[in-house]
């Protein structure tokens, strides 16, 4: 039986200038990720990588990064994070990756993927802090979330993946994106996985159930570079 996994913020790179080992807890992170992934995810499994996938600026210049990702077992579903500067028009990305027939990489944007009795939906999400993304782009991503959920089979349970957290503690108070919660109610979403929060900021993450929805942080350093079982 195939399983579905999730992780975020892999920050893949072979560029010494972008080496994540300068940050606490990120020592030898790509090999740790590879080892954990290969010991956990099987070829028939699927894994969602919820943004900040790679430091690449242009896909064409960083094919080795995507070859590393593709070398890991399973089918991968990718969504954009704020550091994914390589992410561009879906059609063009598909054309570039089509030159590598063995690639098992798929893009989540305004669409969905079916896994067993579930639909995988989502988008970059809403930046509540407005530190990385403007209100205008937040609004666009709310539309993308609705597009993703609306495209899915209503008979299957939706599971949503974001890069940005839809709720977070700020100055001791839990701040919530009410628009996202309204969309969740509209489409019956009960589970949500997200990333983006690292290091000392992980203490501000919300990891639990709120208003009937289970939220889980799957940022790579938070989960010790271990893909998290979703179903």
Tell me what you see in this structure:
It is a single chain. With 231 residues, the chain is of the alpha/beta class. It has a single domain, classed as Metallo-dependent phosphatases (Purple Acid Phosphatase, chain A, domain 2, 4-Layer Sandwich), CATH 3.60.21. The chain is built from five helices and 13 strands. Strands 5-6-7-10-12-11 form a six-stranded mixed beta sheet, with helices on one face. Strand 6, helix 4 and strand 7 form a beta-alpha-beta unit. Helix 4 packs parallel to helix 5. The longest helix is centred in the middle third of the chain and has 17 residues. It starts with a strand and ends with a strand.
Choose one word for the global shape: globular
Number of strands: 13
Q: Main β-sheet, in a few words?
A: 6 strands, mixed
Low-confidence stretches: none
The CATH architecture would be 4-Layer Sandwich
CATH fold-type name:
Purple Acid Phosphatase, chain A, domain 2
What Rg do the Cα atoms give? 17 Å
Q: What order do the helices and strands follow?
A: EHEHEHEEEHEEEHEEEE
Distance between the termini: 11 Å
The overall pLDDT average reads: 95
> Structural class of the helices, strands and pairings?
alpha/beta
- CATH class, named Alpha Beta
What is the number of domains?
A: 1
Within the largest sheet, what's the order of strands? 5-6-7-10-12-11
> Count of DSSP helices?
5
Classified in CATH, the superfamily is Metallo-dependent phosphatases
What is the subunit organization of this protein?
single chain
Helix content: 10-25%
Report the β-strand fraction as a percent range. 15-25%
